[in-house]
């Protein structure tokens, strides 16, 4: 099942093999680990599953061959030199009919009964009766077939030999006939019950997996709701205060530069509040589909409203990029512009996007800060780390570091051929 990472970033990527569990999307995924004699465990499991699949595919063939062989051995074991030719013919017909017992169970019983009554195919009739009971359970056909098998064991062919037997032998043959007819039915019913039990266990396993997924989804939804409450109560309140203070400052001061700075702060605060509301709505969404991510087409608005002197250059077709790559480009440029505002005093910045048939390259480069006295805003140091992880999930490369002219450079490259093929 594809996880949220797969849905958001395209190809199924995995973290380092730790053998633990990762809460990704709506399910807890167990990562493969370990090995057997130097062979990866996943390869061993695939080989075992392939062997079991091949055996299961030919299982019925093996069972049919074994049933025919047992019936033939029974006829050969009870071979009588003084038997008539029709005894052999009926026995051979019964043995051959066993091979078709799955498709025509009742007809095969009718074909094996003469070989049992006037021949030597007792096990053939018992095997056919067991198959009929397994498929039809205690139906009318099963009762009729059981009566015929019982009669074949009770009655002795030819009839004159049957009449010459004492009554004690008849009672003994009647009891033994009940065993001969009842044992295949019992085995057939037992096999059917085992198959039903296996099917129920498989259904329970599927139901348990579904419940596990639902539980993981509920845990994820609760965590998202908690994060939404925290962001709304703390971050939204603080940003609203910033916007209000900036608006008041813009009205109170007479300096045009100060009014412009206050207006920029208010505009950025208002935009941050809008994005924060969208993010909170995403976190509060309990369905599997999240809101759409911003795309590369929105870069002009982002650069124009960055609050710093920035330019944007786009080369190549970018309109049909995969959504994960398009969203990653937007977030990369957004984080880079934020870092320029925070740490470079709003230095002049150039954003360059170039799309080729095989890859997409994005570079954000800012000049050296002109005002070294400008204090840097606090930073947790997680922005570039998040960009590097986002690029890695898309099989991209990420670079960030000081430039030769004293500025800073952020560059990321995303492969397009694999993403578009996938």
From TrEMBL:
Keywords in alphabetical order: ATP-binding, Kinase, Membrane, Nucleotide-binding, Phosphoprotein, Transferase, Transmembrane, Transmembrane helix, Two-component regulatory system
Residue ranges of domain Histidine kinase/HSP90-like ATPase in the record: 329-417
Record organism: Saccharothrix tamanrassetensis
Official protein name in the record: histidine kinase
Transmembrane segments: 61-79, 107-129, 174-191
Pfam families in UniProt: HATPase_c, HisKA_3
EC number: 2.7.13.3
Entry GO terms, CC: membrane
CDD domains: HATPase_UhpB-NarQ-NarX-like
Reactions catalysed according to its record: ATP + protein L-histidine = ADP + protein N-phospho-L-histidine
Key word Transferase present: yes
Top-rank EC class of the record's enzyme: transferase
Signal transduction histidine kinase subgroup 3 dimerisation and phosphoacceptor domain ranges (all copies): 223-286
Listed InterPro entries: HATPase_C_sf (IPR036890), HATPase_dom (IPR003594), Sensor_HK_TwoCompSys (IPR050482), Sig_transdc_His_kin_sub3_dim/P (IPR011712)
Molecular-function GO term, any one: phosphorelay sensor kinase activity
């Amino acid at each position: 099942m594809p996880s949220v990472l797969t849905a958001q970033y395209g190809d199924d990527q995995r973290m380092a093999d730790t053998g633990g569990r990762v809460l990704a999307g709506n399910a807890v995924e167990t990562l493969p680990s370990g090995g057997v004699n130097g062979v990866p465990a996943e390869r061993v499991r695939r080989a075992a599953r392939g062997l079991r699949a091949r055996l299961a595919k030919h299982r019925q063939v093996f069972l049919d061959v074994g049933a025919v062989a047992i019936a033939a051995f029974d006829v050969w074991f009870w071979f009588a030199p003084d038997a008539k030719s029709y005894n052999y013919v009926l026995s051979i017909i019964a043995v051959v009919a066993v091979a078709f017992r799955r498709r025509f169970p009742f007809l095969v019983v009718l074909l094996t009964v003469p070989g049992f009554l006037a021949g030597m195919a007792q096990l053939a009739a018992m095997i056919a009766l067991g198959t009929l009971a397994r498929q039809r359970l205690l139906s009318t056909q099963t009762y009729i077939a059981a009566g015929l098998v019982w009669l074949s064991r009770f009655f002795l062919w030819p009839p004159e030999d049957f009449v010459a037997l004492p009554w004690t032998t008849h009672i003994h043959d009647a009891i033994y006939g009940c065993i001969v007819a009842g044992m295949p039915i019992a085995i057939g019913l037992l096999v059917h019950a085992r198959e039903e039990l296996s099917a129920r266990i498989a259904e329970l396993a599927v139901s348990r997996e579904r419940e596990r997924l639902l539980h993981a989804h509920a845990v994820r939804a609760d965590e998202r709701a908690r994060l939404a409450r925290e962001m709304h109560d703390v971050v939204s309140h603080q940003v609203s205060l910033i916007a209000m203070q900036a608006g008041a400052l813009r009205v109170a001061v007479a300096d045009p530069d100060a009014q412009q700075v206050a207006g920029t702060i208010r505009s950025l605060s208002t935009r941050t509040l809008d994005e924060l509301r969208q993010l909170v709505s995403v976190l509060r969404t309990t369905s599997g589909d999240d809101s759409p991510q911003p795309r590369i087409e929105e870069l002009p608005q982002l650069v124009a409203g960055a609050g710093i002197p920035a330019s944007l250059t786009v080369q190549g077709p970018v309109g049909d990029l995969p959504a994960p790559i398009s969203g990653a480009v937007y977030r990369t440029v957004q984080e880079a512009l934020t870092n320029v505002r925070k740490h470079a005093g709003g230095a002049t910045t150039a954003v360059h996007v170039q799309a080729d048939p095989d890859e997409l390259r994005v570079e954000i480069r800012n000049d050296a800060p002109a005002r070294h006295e400008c204090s840097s805003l606090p930073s947790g140091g997680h922005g570039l780390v998040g960009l590097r992880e986002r690029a890695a999930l898309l099989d991209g490369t990420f670079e960030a570091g000081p430039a030769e002219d004293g500025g800073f450079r952020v560059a990321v490259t995303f492969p397009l051929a694999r993403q578009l093929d996938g």
